Amino acid sequence: MAAYDPRVNTGITTPQNPPPPPPPPPESTISDMPSTTEAVDTATAVATGNNSDTPTDSWKLKFCTVCASNNNRSMEAHLRLSTAPTAYPVISFGTGSLVRLPGPSITQPNVYSFNTTSYNQMYEELEEKDPRLYRNNGILNMLDRNRNLKWGPERFQDWVPGLPRLDHISKGDKGALGTEGGVVDVIITCEERCWDAVVDDLMNKGNTLNRPVHVFNVDIKDNHEEALVGGNAILDLANRLNESAMTQRKMHGAAGWENGSGAARLSFDESVPEILAEWQEKHPNLPALWTLAWL
Amino acid sequence: MAQSTEHVVDQVAQLNAARSLVLGDSALYPQIVNGILPIVGANARLELRRWGADFLAETFASPMLATAQKQELAPTVLQSIQETLALPETDTAVLSSLVQTSASLYPLIFRHIVNHPEDSKTWETMNAVKQEILRKMDSFPCPAKICSVKFLQRVVQVQTPGLIADPRRPDQNETSLAVVPRNHPLLAIPHLEAEASGLLDRLLGVFQEETSDPLIVNATLNCLAPLIRTRQSIANKIIQTILDFFPAKHVRPPFTPTVRVGVKSMERTARALLFNVMKKNPSHPLMGKMQAYIERLMQSRLEVTEDASRKRALPIEPTDGLDNAKRARLDAMTPPLLKIPPLPPGPTSYDQLFTLTQDIGLSSFDVKQLPPDLVVKIAVPLLAQVNPSMLTQAVDAIRNRYETITKEQNLKRQQLHQAATAAAADEDDDYEPDYEPLDVGADASEEAIAIAAEDAELERDLVSLGAFVLPQPPPLTEEEAGDVGRSAVSRVFGMIDAVETTPSSAQSKTQQQLGFARLAGSTFDRDAWVTLLTRLATRAPAGLEGGDKSKGEVATGRRQPTISDSIRETLYRYILEDFRARLKIGITWLNEEWYSDRVRMKAANSERGDEDEEPTVALFYDTWVLRLLDGLLPYLDSRDIKVLVRFLSEIPEVTIAITQRVASLAKDPERVNLTVQALMYLIMFRPPAREMCLNTLEDVYQTYEESRPAAGKVLARWRPQALPAPAETAQASSTVAAPAPATPQAEVQAPTAST
Predict the structure, then answer these.
(1) Lowest mean pLDDT among A181-190, A257-266, B483-492, B634-643
(2) Which residue of B has its CA nearest to A26?
(3) Based on the domain organization, do B165 and B148 belong to the same domain?
(4) Residue A68 is part of a domain; what is its CATH number?
(5) Mind listing the pLDDT tens digit for each residue in B188-232?
């Protein structure tokens, strides 16, 4: 397993949320994460040209990872994306009706409800029940990773896109910075039926935001080993997508702004099928799927 | 420049601060939006325009901001958008965000105009923005074009009549053409509806283009669900359009991976949309069509080629129509069976080749005697009545005959050729078993030519190489044969491993249904291969390998391990590799061994001629059961009681040697209980072995201190006299247990194996 960053409790626990104080200071103190509003920073970087004071990678795609229980695969991907050198803004969900974790036998899973149970609660409960079993099958290890990433599993169907997620920043969720607006650019599911559920649910939500979102599926078997492999591959996909999106923004800034843009440049959106095809060739064992949906 | 850059950085920081404020408290939106509009307006720097456009898109999409407040803000913001668009705006990011914002604004403005018919200026501005987007949409950069698709959808949704949930409270109803009063001065309903209809055609136009852009198609498909759901009047038209859309037909031939990704995504998105519709309305009038469409999509060509490598090929079925057992199952109605008489022996004439009837009168009738017009008169109505399956059968039969004859002739030619070149090669004579040696005369070639002269000529030209006949291989030496045998065995083991990984739940179900009536090894699953292997080891060579082997040879060591022994050895190792999971195989195997031992003993007994000659049969069961037990005992840990008990209870025969092995477990204080429990089980449930086990348990009790508490309890129940406390050992032992050392024969019970 990859090394986890210990949770940075200090500094973040004092939220900028309930009363509205001037927010810039707390934001800038958080060291490796660039300040929140992605759009403007790149614009600034672009405008300054060769002035290297501002980090060049401050604008990033915002990601969302989804699996059935928001515990294993989506959380491994959440970890990889949020702790990558580029530290993507990332949120994660599960599409199941309940959070199901393996129990003593296949017919006795441990069942929890979404949104109201924290990873820490699950950890403590299972450690109480049978520490040996849950340590050996990796569940405790997984929950320990998860509780260091965010508070608890969230259900995709209960997500209201566009609802501010400031509380997640104040809770110290990894990858929360940049997602305070409650929207994402890319959703990556880890199983085909999750992809189906996500696409279906987005249709049900009524596409009220008028905001496009790329929905990918990367088929990952639900075990720890495959989750590791899959997390890696998802990070790879994210890097490729982000690179393309950044190039597009820069290109327009440098060559295009105010002077009229060139004729047919391949935009980020257009490059998505190509990126996925290339990625798929490199990861032939993780069958992928994609569509362009609406939040 | 540097100063202005710093200024911009400051401004952006301030704007970000403002954004954080409104995200925390949506009540501040009006104040902030009005405050930032002058800063991020049409003439601001790019980075500020980008920020502003993003912020406006976010604002009007936000579920936190009430619709009423959005409506109030809308007209002001609209003005700013129009100015920016009119620049014209060239930055893709700004453009996309502005189109997004416009899509969110449209219903708000529409509702505003419904309530404020006097505000014609705002409506004009909205119309200007709408026309600007619609006009330029096709030349927009892709991201903005995608957002324009959504804008189109929004306009269509607003300008099509929706459901009126409650006519008394118009402001509660969804914004649509239905909320517009008939006499509205600005909004002419027929005009708006006509425009919407045109825009819907434009929206759906992507499905009719020759080459589809997956981005636009997916963007369209994904935004149609709300239209289908809430706009009854156009729902069927939309569905119908999708039903006529087959993504694989809308791409150009070079099927690059990119194109494949696109096609697959369009197929899956179309499927997702229809599933969504069907789930919402299970009694939809187009239900059947939608299901058929989805099925057709799933079978689409690209999908097939892509998955072909992953799936197993279909089992090969005979296509010649001769295998009626198969055909009967495939066809709902069994076609009448055509009786095909075998060809008469010897050379065949064309006449014989094509004659299927056995009626002598018919077959000798010369059709040439009839005038042609009469033949036509008879033939045409007859042809119309021909049963297609009979015709197929007949044609297949002739084809089969023809192929057989051709093969024979080729073979003949080949042999003649060989006879000519290598006259000394007489081995060839016994090569062809089906062949009738009578025909291989000196005149065979003449005959062949006489049978089908022109045809043979043609044949030779077409297939100038002739049939290839593999030369007979040299006889195998015993060692080679052994090697080949072993490699065959290892391949069968490979099959077990291969089958092992596939889930067998469905198979085991059907197997259970078969019950006792089933044939062992007929299901081709893992069990079948195991059965095959165990029988290969135990039965196949019975009487072949052991027969001529004298006792001495067995003792001194054989020259070469026999195949059956190598199978046993491999089985033994295979089971030990994972004995917990493969114990069942071991038990099956040992049962087979035991059974085969019995059979051979019986056979040897009956064959015995002289009474002084003792029949000797090498017994394999005893050897291998001990080896297997020895092999797995070291690995048993204290919790493996189930494994051990299962082994001991299911092997066909328990011997003293076995019980002693079990007793030896007691050396390990941790596994004492294992010994005691296993023995107790045998004592309780395997009466023939009871005495044997009690003796052993007594030994254990005497020898190993740690076993006393547990063993004592068992002995107290079954053999109280063995316990030291009440000193009445002598008489008790004679009454209860005659300590007869149980011979193997004394403990015979039916093997549990399913033979």
Answers:
(1) A257-266
(2) B17
(3) yes
(4) 3.40.50.2300
(5) 888 999 999 999 999 999 998 888 889 999 999 999 999 999 888
- Going by C-alpha positions, the residue among A123, A114, A107 that lies closest to residue A93 is A114
What phi and psi, each to the nearest 5 degrees, are found at residue A33? -90, 130
Residue B635 covered by a domain? no
Nearest Cα neighbor of A282 from A217, A232, A227, A215 is A232
| Structural domain contains residue B741 | yes
- Cα torsion for B255, B257, B262, B265, to the nearest 10°? 120
Give the mean pLDDT of chain B: 77
CA dist., res. B740 & res. B695, Å (int): 10
Measured between alpha carbons, how far is A37 from A33 in angstroms, rounded to an integer? 11
A interface mutation test: which of B230, B261, B639 has the most A CBs within 10 A? B261
Which candidate in B215, B273, B639 is best for mutational testing of the A interface (most A CBs within 10 A)? Answer: B215
B301 and B347, same structural domain? no
Distance, CA of B206 to CA of B215 (rounded, Å): 10
Nearest to A216 by CA among A184, A247, A246: A184
Of B207, B235, B264, which marks where a domain is finished?
B207
Q: Which residue in A has a C-alpha nearest to residue B270's C-alpha?
A: A291
User: Between chains, do B50 and A43 touch, taking CB under 8 Å as contact?
Assistant: yes
Q: How far apart are CA A268 and CA A266, in angstroms?
A: 7
> Are B196 and B218 within one domain?
no
For every residue of B529-549, which 3-state class applies, written as one string? HHHHHHHHHHCCCCCCCCCCC
* A268 contacts B46? CB cut-off 8 A: no
Residue B500 covered by a domain: no
Taking the CB of residue B84, how many other CB atoms lie within 10 A of it? 23
The answer as to whether B58 is a domain residue is yes
Residues in B closer than 8 angstroms to A58, CB to CB, are none
- In this structure, is residue A103 part of a structural domain? no
Closest-CA distance, A139 to chain B, in angstroms, reads: 23
With CA atoms as reference, report the closest residue to B675 among B645, B635, B649.
B645
Contacts of B142 in chain A (CB under 8 A): 267, 269-270
Contact between A256 and B91 using a beta-carbon 8 Å cutoff = yes
Task: Identify whether the C-beta of residue B591 lies closer than 8 Å to the C-beta of residue B752.
Answer: yes
pTM: 0.56
- With beta carbons less than 8 A apart as the criterion, state whether A216 and A186 touch: yes
- Measure in Å the smallest separation between the Cα of A286 and chain B Cα atoms: 13
Look at chain B and report how many structural domains it folds into.
Answer: 4
Q: Are residues B170 and B248 in the same domain?
A: no
Is A289 contained in some domain? yes
Rounded Cα distance, B334 and B357, in Å = 21
CA distance A79 to A82: 5
For residue A248, list chain B residues with Cβ-Cβ distance below 8 A. 92
Q: Judge whether residue A152 has pLDDT over 90.
A: yes
What total of structural domains would you count in chain A? 1
**Is the CB of A207 less than 8 angstroms away from the CB of B225?**
yes
Angle at the Cα of A227 (from A223 to A232), degrees rounded to 5? 160
Residues B21 and B163 in one domain: yes
Q: What would the two tokens of residue B444 be?
A: 């065979």
ipTM, 2 dp? 0.79
Q: Averaged over B308-335, what is the pLDDT?
A: 42
A123 located within any domain: no
Mutation for A interface: B222, B228, B279, most A CBs within 10 A: B222
| Strand A110-112, strand A63-67: pairing | unpaired
In-domain check, residue A250: yes
How far is the alpha carbon of A3 from chain B, nearest alpha carbon, in Å? 32
**Domain closes at, from B462, B492, B520:** B462
Choose between A80 and A246: higher pLDDT. A80
- Give the domain range for residue B67: 9-207
Chain A residues in contact with B256 by the CB 8 A cut-off are 277
